[in-house]
């Protein structure tokens, strides 16, 4: 790693900005946080800074979305997990925020308001431009050092992600370090054969990952499930029925069919597609071979024979990267593909999972201890696995060149 870490800096008595990713599913009607995995994962970094004045910067959702809200509930959640008071300020760079930081003492934690309430944070800017924003200049003036721990947002280039490291000495926090170390193993030391299981609804990301990891030989096989599989069926000329075709259109993925075809043509023996699907027919689960999918029933899971075949394939894999479910697991009748494949993947010597939905199911099934790593990143994890350098990592490296030692 070419960036600084907590081990490289002295924080005693210093004021330290810590950029975290607390962005979590929230029930907008009660402002309740529904999953606190990301909070739990940041606790070690915050605890390691116990001798500093800690100023936490975080975002929740995006402008225009229902769960774009203040961080009051996040402060309560953090207080409970840290077992100590957290001062929440409904301000980011104004006089209230500055006063709260100025009045704090070593050992205190201040949580600033949702940083995406600042219009500047919602701009996608080059790091050097981000460093010049009012937001970054004022935040940097409040502190001596910055710790970047927000792996889940590392694929964005927004001012507090890539601008802050250009404006002040910034090192990676413990979560960031762990994510980079664990996910890098996929490229360096993962036991062979390596199988990528790509499902869920983010078809464009999954197809980009599939193309890259097959081309650079990171993966030996790709198992496609969920909506991603439906796009591969279309690429093979298989009629998946009107409802499943409409879903692909609505999600804006018609253009992905041609890309799936290129992958199938280039790697005919390396792509595993379920031969059987489960559809919803008169409110019941019915299974069909892919050549006889009914025209008016949505595909909501893979069929049982394919679950057995894929589970065998996963059992023969040394490493498994799992991203996205096999079906609409939220409906009990269509959960078996996702549940069984996650169980099979848990037995691999090295198993990594990315994506909030998938990680939540793993926790629900009690499989977490069996996985080598559950990433806090959705988009960030999948982009890392394409082999691209994430903007936040590039900015951390630049910060270390500029300000380190
Ligand atoms: N065949 C299908 N038809 C419709 N929806 C599906 C199908 N298969 C999976 N899904 C849906 O995919 C969703 C999760 O996909 P997504 O790509 O968001 O997963 P993730 O990457 O684990 O989660 P996150 O977006 O939180 O990081 C689930 O809500 C599930 O119902
Ligand atoms: O949950 C995420 O993927 C990160 O917090 C980034 O959020 P965004 O997709 O709204 O930028």
From TrEMBL:
Major location (coarse): cytoplasm
Assembly notes: Monomer.
Enzyme Commission number(s): 2.7.2.3
Class of enzymatic activity (EC top level): transferase
Catalytic activity, reaction form: (2R)-3-phosphoglycerate + ATP = (2R)-3-phospho-glyceroyl phosphate + ADP
Alphabetized GO MF terms: ADP binding; ATP binding; phosphoglycerate kinase activity
Residues at which ATP binds: 330, 355-358
Protein name: Phosphoglycerate kinase
Binding site for substrate: 21-23, 38, 59-62, 116, 156
Family: Belongs to the phosphoglycerate kinase family.
Family matches, as InterPro entries: Phosphoglycerate_kinase (IPR001576), Phosphoglycerate_kinase_CS (IPR015911), Phosphoglycerate_kinase_N (IPR015824), Phosphoglycerate_kinase_sf (IPR036043)
Keywords: ATP-binding, Cytoplasm, Glycolysis, Kinase, Nucleotide-binding, Transferase
GO biological process: gluconeogenesis; glycolytic process
Cell compartment(s), UniProt: Cytoplasm
Amino acids binding (2R)-3-phosphoglycerate: 38, 116, 156
Pathway named in the protein's UniProt entry: Carbohydrate degradation; glycolysis; pyruvate from D-glyceraldehyde 3-phosphate: step 2/5
Domain of life: Archaea
GO cellular component annotations of the record: cytosol
């Amino acid at each position: 790693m070419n960036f600084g870490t907590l081990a490289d800096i002295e924080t005693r008595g210093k004021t330290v900005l810590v950029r975290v990713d607390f962005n979590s599913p929230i029930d907008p009607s009660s402002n309740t946080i529904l999953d606190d995995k990301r909070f739990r994962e940041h606790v070690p970094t915050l605890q390691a800074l116990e001798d500093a004045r800690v100023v936490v910067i975080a975002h929740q959702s995006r402008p225009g979305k229902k769960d774009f809200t203040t961080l009051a509930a996040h402060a309560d959640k953090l207080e409970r997990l840290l077992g100590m008071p957290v001062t929440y300020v409904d301000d980011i760079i104004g006089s209230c925020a500055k006063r709260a930081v100025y009045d704090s003492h070593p050992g205190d934690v201040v949580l600033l308001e949702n940083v995406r309430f600042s219009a500047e944070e919602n701009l996608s800017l080059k790091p050097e431009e981000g460093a010049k924003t009012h937001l970054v200049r004022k935040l940097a003036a409040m502190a001596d050092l910055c710790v970047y721990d927000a792996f889940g947002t590392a694929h964005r280039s927004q001012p507090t992600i890539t601008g802050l490291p250009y404006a002040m000495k910034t090192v990676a926090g413990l979560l960031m370090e762990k994510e980079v170390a664990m996910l890098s193993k996929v490229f360096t030391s993962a036991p062979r054969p390596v199988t990528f299981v790509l499902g869920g609804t983010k078809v464009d990301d999954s197809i980009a990952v599939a193309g890259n990891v097959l081309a650079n030989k990171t993966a030996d096989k790709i198992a496609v499930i969920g909506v991603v599989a439906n796009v591969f069926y279309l690429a093979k000329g298989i009629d998946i029925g009107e409802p499943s075709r409409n879903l692909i259109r609505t999600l804006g993925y018609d253009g992905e069919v041609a890309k799936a075809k290129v992958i199938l043509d280039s790697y005919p023996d390396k792509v595993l597609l379920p031969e059987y699907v489960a559809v919803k027919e008169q409110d019941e689960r019915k299974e069909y071979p892919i050549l006889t999918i009914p025209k008016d029933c949505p595909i909501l899971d893979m069929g049982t024979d394919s679950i057995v075949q894929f589970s065998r394939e996963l059992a023969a894999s040394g490493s498994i990267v799992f991203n996205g479910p096999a079906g609409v697991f939220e409906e009990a009748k269509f959960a078996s593909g996702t549940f069984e494949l996650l169980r099979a993947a848990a037995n691999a010597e090295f198993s990594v999972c990315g994506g909030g939905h998938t990680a939540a199911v793993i926790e629900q099934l009690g499989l977490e201890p069996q996985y080598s790593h559950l990433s806090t990143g959705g988009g960030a994890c999948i982009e890392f696995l394409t082999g691209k350098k994430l903007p936040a990592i590039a900015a951390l490296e630049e910060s270390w060149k500029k300000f380190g030692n």
